[in-house]
Amino acid sequence: MQEQLSQNLAPVLPASERYDAIVIGAGLGGLLAAAHLVQRNKHVLVLERLNHSGGRFTAKTFQGVQVSTGAVHMVPFGSSGVLAHMLSRLRVPYRFFDADVFGSFHVHGKQHRVRGLLGVSRFLGPRQFGWFLRLGWLMFFRPLPADERDLPFDRWLERHINVKRNPQLVAFFERISRFALSLELHQVSTAEVIQTTKNMFRFGAPAIVDGGCGALSKRLEQHVIKQGGEILHSCEVRQILQEEGKVSGVRFLQKTSGEERTVYAPLVVSDIGPRATDALLENRRITQAALLKELKNPAMEAPLRGEPTIREAVGLKVHVLSDVSLIPHRGIMYCLDTKRIAGIVQPTNSDPSLAPPGKHLLITHQVIQSHNVEEEKALALADLRMLFGETFEKHCRVLTMGTYRGEWPVNRLSQGEDVSPKTHVQGLYLVGDAVKPSGYLMVEGVAQSVNHFLDLLDSLDRERARTRRSHMAVRGSKLNALRWLYKAPGNSGRY
Length: 495
Ligand SMILES: Cc1cc2nc3c(=O)[nH]c(=O)nc-3n(C[C@H](O)[C@H](O)[C@H](O)COP(=O)(O)OP(=O)(O)OC[C@H]3O[C@@H](n4cnc5c(N)ncnc54)[C@H](O)[C@@H]3O)c2cc1C
What we know:
FAD/NAD-bd_sf, oxidoreductase activity, 20% strand, 7-stranded mixed β-sheet, Phytoene dehydrogenase-like protein, Amino_oxidase, alpha/beta
């Protein structure tokens, strides 16, 4: 009887099963949250179902190439962004190579290298460039009227320009949205596009991570462990436990031994998104196979088994190994005249170690526009042939082609549709790319989700709440927005 009691009651459990905080998922969001909690002297356990950390922000070595599990080794706001600030605050070593250009634009069969914003006149021509300037004024110098805030961005464009007479200008916005947000223009609100663009301009140029995203996740993992945190791989959380509306711990499966264990903590941070977190609260599991089956059903955006509609951003990515350099800069090449590929990066321009010596890694990205994945892949290949012609056949090899959707999407929630880190269960918080505040995309949004979570923790501690300023108050510089006119602001001159 006594033995049975001690199994059920947290206070008499062995100390090894009690923690100050449990983090579900060792993706970037989970690792960043854990790093902050250990910095606050919390006894932290991170549980990860895979046999490695990093989630969609790591890489595997394949034929000597750093093939990423998600991110294209790129950080949207570069060395001045939110993630960079956070890593410095945590004292995790990192180096980001900022882009040296605004980008290049493949239009009418030619790649135009553009240093700053004004350079887009080269491929837009004087008339479309005039409309480009007008849109810039409407977006950044005029308060956005209330009736335009929620307008899908394609409708906003139609309201202000003649879209038929400005095809390259429309393609310019469309391809940037597809590459950066994995969304079509009709899927994102005008307010969100403007807020995100303002942040991009204020923080600075995007950057490639030194060593790739795998190296950064590894460093974060080591940092958490060095500071006393525990990370258990191949451990899948099966249930989040609660008592009287308060979180009390989790039950998980150790996949290698098949053993189930329960661990207790008054604080649980979930990095697996709201859909999977809600399921674990109800002792259910969401599997990738079941989700993809649901998505194949005709009504693609219908609620899953009565759950609220979750609209993730989906994409297709191709890793290409090339004998020759195809992109002459460290930024993004946007493809305005392709059928599917929205943009390509060549991260080996910043860090050659991401591919074998003398070779180049190229990563393409596109939004999946139909249910026919094979056709989407074929269109990507056709685009590559169109973009690089014979050079592609002679010098390039496709290493991998992969789709990102269901429980492994580009963004767990589409930009602008994110949820709060606070849940209805006391002590249970969400971090990650379903919790991105408005205007913060991809891993910058993940870092801001952790800042938001820290603010919520501080608000529970009166002394901290009184003395500390918000963690989210990381600001870019207005001067950067000016610099963008003629160059990409960042550290590219240094490296
Ligand atoms: C194709 C693609 C391209 C991208 N490009 C970029 C880019 O260039 N730049 C950029 O900034 N971002 C990019 N992103 C987005 C970026 O990768 C993600 O925003 C970020 O990695 C999300 O991190 P996260 O911690 O929120 O989630 P995740 O990385 O998904 O982490 C969640 C972790 O939880 C684990 N987990 C799930 N369920 C359980 C469970 N029950 N128990 C235990 N563990 C569990 C998962 O295995 C995973 O490791 C891209 C994403 C994709 C897919």
